[in-house]
Design a protein that fits this description.
Layout: H1 2-27, H2 31-38, E1 63-72, E2 81-92, E3 95-106, E4 109-123, E5 129-143, H3 155-161, E6 166-176, E7 180-186, H4 189-193, E8 206-214, E9 216-219, E10 222-236, E11 242-251, E12 256-263, E13 267-275, E14 279-288, E15 299-308
Antiparallel strand pairs: 1-2, 1-15, 2-3, 3-4, 4-5, 5-6, 6-7, 7-8, 8-10, 9-10, 10-11, 11-12, 12-13, 13-14, 14-15
Length: 311
Amino acid sequence: MLKYISMKENYSKVRLQVVKLFLSAILTSMLFPCYAQLNPSQSIYYQNRYLYNPATAGMNDVLNINTNYRKQWVEIPGAPVAAMFTADKQVADRVGLGLNINDDQAGLIRQTRIMGTYAYHLPIGETEQFHFGLSLGVDNSRLNTKNAIADLTDEQIAAYNVLKPYVDGDFGVAYTDNRLYIGAAVPNLKSAFFKSADYRFDADRMLFITMASYKIPVVSDNDDFVLEPIGGFRMVKGYDNIVDFGANFFMNKYGLYMQSIYHTSQSIGVGAGLDLDDYALSFSYNIETGRMHNYTNGAFELGLKLKLFGK
C-alpha cells in the first residue's frame, strides 16, 4: 500500500514538472508575435502608414477608417491572428487626430493596444510638409486560461495574468511632398525609456522603424500609371536588423494597384487592391522563404478603407 502511495506521489510530481515545462513553452511562444513584428501588416507600405507612424494621422480632411485582418501560418494550431482598426482625420488647420486599436492573439496569449493620437502638420513650402505625431494609450496582455491544458493554479499562469494594463505611447515624424515620403517612428515608448517594462516577455518589441518611398510617373508626367519604389529599415529586440525593399505599381486610371515587398527576415509580401474615391479594398499574402516555409502556407491579410466626410 505504501509503495502504491509513493508511486502515485512520484507520478504527480512528474506530471507537475511536465505541466510547468508545457507552460514555459507557451510563454516563450511569444516567438509567434515576434514573427508578427518581423512580417508586419502589409498595408503599412501604402494603404495605412498610420499603423506604424502616428505622424501620418490626419494628413487630409477626410475621415479615414481602416480595418485589417491578418492570419499567419494557417496550418499551425494557435498561429498568430491580428485585427487592426484605425480612424484619423484633420480636425483643424495643421492638426490631425487618430485612434489606433490592435488586437493580437498567438497561442494562449492575447495583447490589446488602444492608442489615441495627436499629429501636427507643418507646411514648409508649396507642397512640402513636416509631420509630428504622438500616441498615448493603454497596452494589456493576458493568457487565455480557458484553452490551457494544464494546472490553472500553476504560478506561471498567475505570474503572467497578474500583470496590469499599463500606459504606453509612440512617437513619429515624417516629411512629404507630392511624390516623396520619408517617415520614422519610435514605438513602445515606455519600453524604450524604462527598463522595468522589459519583464513583459517582449522579445519581439519594435525599437525603431523608418520608411521612404518616391512616386515615379511611368509615362511622362501623367499620373495614370505610377511606380513607387519603397525602402524600409526596422530594429526589433532580440533579432537582426531588418531591411524591407520593394515597390507599389499604381494604375490610377482604373483605381488599381499592385505591391511586392521583400523582407530580409526571409519573406516576401505580395498584394493588390482597389483604391477609389470613397473606399479601398486590399488583399496581400506573405510567403516565407526561410526555414518556416516547410511548416506553413504563409500569411494572408484583408483590408477595408472608408473615406468619409471629405470636402
